[in-house]
Amino acid sequence: xxxxxxxxxxxxxxxxxxxxxxxxxxxxxxxxxxxxxxxxxxxxxxxxxxxxxxxxxxxxxxxxxxxxxxxxxxxxxxxxxxxxxxxxxxxxxxxxxxxxxxxxxxxxxxxxxxxxxxxxxxxxxxxxxxxxxxxxxxxxxxxxxxxxxxxxxxxxxxxxxxxxxxxxxxxxxxxxxxxxxxxxxxxxxxxxxxxxxxxxxxxxxxxxxx
Length: 210
Hints:
mainly beta
C-alpha cells in the first residue's frame, strides 16, 4: 500500500470517485482501475503509471482496435459521457431559428449529414447554440405522449465527453472518434480544443472522414 500511495499524485481531488488517494489505492484490483485517476495520464506521471501497473498486476494491455460499423473506418477512441451524465454533451445550432427553445425542453431534430432522427434534452443555452443530452431515439419514436419541439435540421458544433477506450488525444489534434451511444456506430471527426484528464472537447464536427 505504501508503495502504491507513493506513486499516486496525492491530490485527493475526488475525480476517481473516492475522497482520498488512499481510498482509491485500497480498491485497486487491476491495472485497468488506474484509468479512473485522470492525472496518471499526464506526462509527469507516466513513469508512475508503469510502476503502478506492475504493482497492481500486469502492464496495461494495448487498446483493441475501434472500428465504425457503418463505414468500417478505424477510430482513435470511443467517447463516453462525462462523469454522472447520461450522454456526451452535444452543442447544436438549429437552422430553423423561428422556434423558441428553453432549458429543459425536449427536442426532435436531425443532425446535418446523419439519416437518424434524434431526441435531446436542452441543458444550457447560448445565443444560437444549445447544449443538449441525447435521450433517444430508441425509446422515443412512436410515443404519442411525448411532448417535444420539432426543430428540424441542426448543425453539430461540438462534443464534450470522456475518452473511455483508445488513445488519449492532445489539444490541437484532428481526431476520429465514435460516440458510445451512436446508433450507427459511425466514425466522427473533429479537432480537440481542450483536454483535462480523460475529459475532452472536440469542435468542428464532421461525419465525413477524409
